[in-house]
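Repro case for the chain-ordering regression, as requested:
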Amino acid sequence: MKFLKFLFVGIFFGIILVKSEAVSWYRIFEMFKFQSFHMFGIIGSAVFLGILFLWIFRRFKVKSIEGNEIHLAPKDKSFARYIIGGTIFGLGWALAGACPGPMYILLGTGVSSMLLVIAAATLGTFVYGVLKNKLPH
Amino acid sequence: MEVILKPWPWYVSGPLIALVMAILVFFGKTFGMSSNLRTLCSIGGAGKYADFFRFDWKAQKWNLTVVLGAIIGGFIAVQFLSDGSAIDLNPETIADLNTLGFQNAGATLLPAEIYHWDSIMTFKGFSILVLAGFLVGFGTRYAGGCTSGHAITGLSNLQLPSLIAVIGFFIGGLLMTHFLLPLIF
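-- result from build under test --
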């Protein structure tokens, strides 16, 4: 039963991303062409409100439902891995028109070919894991 | 009800995405979709090949549950919460896509030119999707997160590494959209 709440969060997330059209290849193309404010508005308002939410959690020392203090682990300090990894991700994002969240969601909308993309993404993650120690981080 | 069936504007969707992030944080977790790809590798036995996959994947079952929910959410959204409106793209975008050979831009969520099985059953079409997925899966783990982990959670948490990663996302995305897509299509 403790997983039920995560199932509902996922359903909610899936619905939002379809209804916002953020799962659309065309919207990603349009974003990278700077021809619409739509995607920038979505990401921008999400970050703006996200900052506010996390600030409230911190300011009022809100505890998670597990009773622990809310703490988001800071990301490791580095430059190379973020700029190189990020660029590789961006190349794939603009080609597939979908990042990992939308890949699963689009599968649910009935796009069976997304299984191929998810399989390839899993393979990409596997190859990264194998090469990890040889790559600049 | 009609308002729900129409596409949702950015100022509704963006805040709701922030709410998803906040709920997961409140549940003692984080918002990160690409981590599930690593979990899938571990379940598939990738731990035999790299330490990176030797972790307690069972602790990630909650996130796989979010994925399952997201798949169901996608189904619900198109089956019950959509009126079939076309995507209201900028006419310039539609014209640019026509030049690249994309017909009916915005009529569906994804272009048939990339995602229809007829396109995938060619060597070129198959390679495009495999390459795209591979780059996403490799890049996201290299960068330590994707749009949900870096662009939404990391930026909300004012993490400089996430800003660098998001700048990377845009470098890659702009290169693909402006220089590589015209070569590919």
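Ordering looks correct now. The two ends of chain B are 40 Å apart (CA to CA).
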